[in-house]
Amino acid sequence: MGIITGVIGHWGWEVEDYLLDVWEAHRTPIILATSSILICVWLYLYFSEEREGLVALPRQYTVETKRTSPFQLSNPLPTTKPKVVGEKATTVGPKRIRGEIPRQTTQKESPKRDGLEIQVLVFYSSLTGKTEKAVKDLVEVSQEEINGAGTGTCRFPDAQILDLSEIDYDEYFINPPKREDGKAVDYFYLLLLPSYNIDTINDTFLEHLKETHNDFRIDSAPLSNLVGYSVFGFGDREGWPTEEDGYGFQAKEVDRWMAKLTGRKRAFPLGLGDLKMDGKARLLEWSSGLIDVLRMFAQTGVLGDGVRGSGDADESDGEYASDEEEDTETSIEGNEKPTKNKGSIDDVEDLGKMVAPSEKAPLAIDFTTYGKSKPVNIQTPQAKEMVPKTSPTYAALTKQGYSIIGSHSGVKICRWTKSALRGRGSCYKYSFYGINSHQCMESTPSLSCSNKCVFCWRHGTNPVGTIWRWQVDPPDLIFSGIKEAHYKKIKMMRGVPGVRAERFQEAMRIRHCALSLVGEPIFYPHINEFVGMLHAERISTFLVCNAQHPDQLAALKPITQLYVSIDAADKESLRRIDRPLHRDFWERFQRCLEILREKRFKQRTVFRLTLVKGFNIDEAVKGYADLVDKALPCFVEIKGVTYCGTSTSSSAGLTMANVPFYAEIQEFVEALNHELNSRGLEYGIAAEHAHSCCALLASARFKKNGKWHTRIDYDRFFDLWEERGPDGDWTPEDYMGEETPEWATWGNGGFDPRDTRVDRKGRKIEV
Ligand SMILES: Cc1cc2nc3c(=O)[nH]c(=O)nc-3n(C[C@H](O)[C@H](O)[C@H](O)COP(=O)(O)O)c2cc1C
Ligand code: SF4
């Protein structure tokens, strides 16, 4: 044993010496080789190791190629873990705190692939069975249409009806259900329910929607991969006459929570009906709108503008920044002062320096002199576009929400149109003349004007000039263009909270056109043909001109209601306020009054007075009475100016202090009325719209049996137009409408009782 130990000890020393020698001789290569081997081993282990995926957060964007359905869903929002029966719905990790949902700006056609099924699920609740019956009848009659809405690539199988008192909400209202056969299917939810102010299943359902939205463990919009949804509510108008009284209140609530849970996928506005009254008609109207939406989805893969993921919905609640009507609405809506940016231009003449010459020959019209001749065709090669797409004017106008049609026309959805769609009140023209604001289109065939009025908020963005020297677009191009743009904008209101199905459907038929948007409509050389196209489609015309183009005014064929702006009572004030480009502006103005006087038995004529404190009110009553005496208009609309804060108005010395209070307007109206009566002129104060700071004086011609009849019989007007042609041999009395409603008459405020007045934040105001 001792020998062995000795031998090993000896060898050990020898090995050690040997290794030391080797180390001394080859130290560097040994170090390098060892480190290389270690690196290789580490790399091998790193790449071959099976690690857990980083899956704590749900996916934000789906990858298009991974979708199995033929359409990219319009709203690729986070996907959550599908619910397994019996398992509590949870997501991995904490609730994500998200910022504002990014809006998609434009509607894009989605790539199509074959085989998508969209399952329509119809949920209902019913206590006494009326809703249940209505739902079953509806599905029975519309089933074929629903199926027929599909295309080769997108099918709508038979709709399934589900009773909210029988289903498990977790299966449908946390995530859309998965099909057992694993087939790719997307869902479209319809919810129909009555309202009950007593405890019912509706409360349980609403509580579930609310809890789901507020559950910190799951996404606040877990139903965002639904194709879309829409709600219809039944109620009782006798017991609950208005929405404020509780009419259909639970359907409204469901609509609101579904908007949150789906990330605003309201495919069609909320419908409401009373089965004892209009319930069936409202339901059919709602369902036909929905079928259109399904059809569109099948064809394009999107639900249309205004629905989340399909385009921008204008949900501005800041649209009540002012109480004005069309002349000011746009300044409010954008909440932007039309500031002059570096490249902006005031005079259209300036445009000439900026635009490329066009091939088309212009129709030059000289507006600087009058009483001479008809427009002459001048074949000049320098024809320019009034508002070229590349110009700062175009950029400024489109930024303010105008759609520019062709090269010199515009259309814009007025804030009152939006307001009426949401049941928040129509403009004063409803109170006075029966114009439904949600069926009204505001447009102009000429963006150019010949004045630079101090209170015109558009000044600085719209072109001005005295001579038409631009390309002339044909009237049919303008007509089809403005309609298309208007309807497009109405459709964008589809997903906006508060829009009601009934008004939305009505808005898809334009009935009125206010030719007063911006610029001077009679500047357009083909104004008569253009107006004729509107009348041929039974669209009424309210045309406002600036009393600077007597020849064009004289040649204008009868329109439904013809306005002349009367911005001052004397020459000096008119110069100060309107800042006209024409040197002979006062003569032009006077001549227009004479023409208006001649037209007063042919069509309804109106003076529009815009009162500016410190400019054209004080001691002006007599002057205005002289003008009324001269033109004898059928009506005199008097309204207070709205301060728009433009640099133009500020530089003209206009401030908030120049905006009259409604009490001051009332005082003025009474004084003017008194002055007219004292001269033996038979006028009276017929109506008011306090909300717009506006009142109406009317000629006694529009008083029957002691009652004012300021409203218009539009059907009668079109009948006359069709029977007697566009030159119109008729009188305004021939199409005088029904009695002015009591609530609109002087002393009653003029707010439409069907609507709810709200403040800027959408809170109800007691009228
Ligand atoms: C006790 C009771 C409370 C009601 N509350 C409301 C209500 O607050 N608002 C409303 O619009 N309708 C209300 N209604 C009317 C119902 O919504 C309406 O009759 C509906 O058509 C009933 O539908 P159903 O038969 O499917 O249950 C109420 C009806 C009852 C009987
Ligand atoms: S008339 Fe038409 S465009 Fe003018 S404010 Fe009323 S709704 Fe708007």
TrEMBL record:
BP-aspect Gene Ontology terms: wybutosine biosynthetic process
Region described as Disordered: 305-346, 731-767
Keyword Nucleotide-binding: yes
Pathway: tRNA modification; wybutosine-tRNA(Phe) biosynthesis
Catalytic activity: N(1)-methylguanosine(37) in tRNA(Phe) + pyruvate + S-adenosyl-L-methionine = 4-demethylwyosine(37) in tRNA(Phe) + 5'-deoxyadenosine + L-methionine + CO2 + H2O
Signal sequence segment: none
PROSITE patterns, alphabetized: FLAVODOXIN_LIKE, RADICAL_SAM
Domain Flavodoxin-like: 120-291
The Radical SAM core domain, residue ranges: 433-682
Biased composition annotated in UniProt, kind: Acidic residues: 312-330, 731-741
Cofactors (names): [4Fe-4S] cluster
Family to which this protein belongs: Belongs to the TYW1 family.
Protein name, as recorded: S-adenosyl-L-methionine-dependent tRNA 4-demethylwyosine synthase
Compositionally biased tracts (Basic and acidic residues): 334-345, 752-767
Keywords carried by this UniProt record: 4Fe-4S, Iron, Iron-sulfur, Lyase, Metal-binding, Nucleotide-binding, S-adenosyl-L-methionine, tRNA processing
GO molecular function, one term: FMN binding
E.C. no: 4.1.3.44
